Amino acid sequence: MNFYYGAIVFAHVVSAVISVGPLFLLLPLIRRLRTAKAEAEDIYLAFIRVIIRLVMHSGHVLVVTGILLILFGPWPWNTSWIILTIGVMLLSGFFLATGFSSVLKRFHEPSNDREAVINKLQRTAWVYIGLLMVMLWLMVQKPAVW
Predict the structure, then answer these.
(1) d(CA 7, CA 123)
(2) Which end of the chain is more exposed for a tag (fewer CB within 10 A), N or C?
(3) Cα(130)–Cα(94) distance, rounded to whole angstroms?
(4) How confident is the model at residue 1 (pLDDT cuts 50, 70, 90)?
(5) Backbone angles phi and psi of 105, in degrees to 5
(6) In three state form, how does the secondary structure of the chain look?
(7) pLDDT at 71
């Protein structure tokens, strides 16, 4: 049982790294998108979509391994840091599903201001990174809030 728990912890940590790391690639891509010519825009947007998909799918592994860690680990479901992590996770999942896709869909609409859409994309990336950092802090520090 100890070996399996360690393997689940490892998978959980790797999926957390894959969930957070690629998001930092968004920032230089968004910066380059600001000055990109029309031909290059679609390439940058495709890279952004791939990053979002990678983050989303590694998030699925993160959730499954997190559930397994709670089932087999020493912490009960009603521990404050677990409840808060689940809350932030649900919020970030909703944000990932709605925030990025709505901004990316608006990019090529002729009625939208390109610069405003890029600014919204950058804000969305930073907010999502912030949510993931809060979750990471909760999982590492395991604070007893109540």
Answers:
(1) 35
(2) N
(3) 14
(4) low
(5) -65, -35
(6) CHHHHHHHHHHHHHHHHHHHCCHHHHHHHHHHHHHCCHHHHHHHHHHHHHHHHHHHHHHHHHHHHHHHHHHHCCCCCCCHHHHHHHHHHHHHHHHHHHHHHHHHHHCCCCCCCHHHHHHHHHHHHHHHHHHHHHHHHHHHHCCCCC
(7) 93
CA atoms within 13 A on the CB side of 64: 9
Q: What tokens were used for 130?
A: 């912030």
Measured at the CA of 20, the angle between CA 28 and CA 65, to 5 degrees, comes to 160
Please name the residue that has the structure tokens 């604070």: 143
Residue type, 100: F
How many Å apart are CA 97 and CA 100, to the nearest integer?
Answer: 7
Select from 60, 99, 69, 61 the least CA-distant residue to 4: 69
Summarised one tens digit per residue, pLDDT across range 19-45 is 888 888 999 999 999 888 888 888 999
Tokens encoding 49:
């979509």
9, two tokens: 């912890």
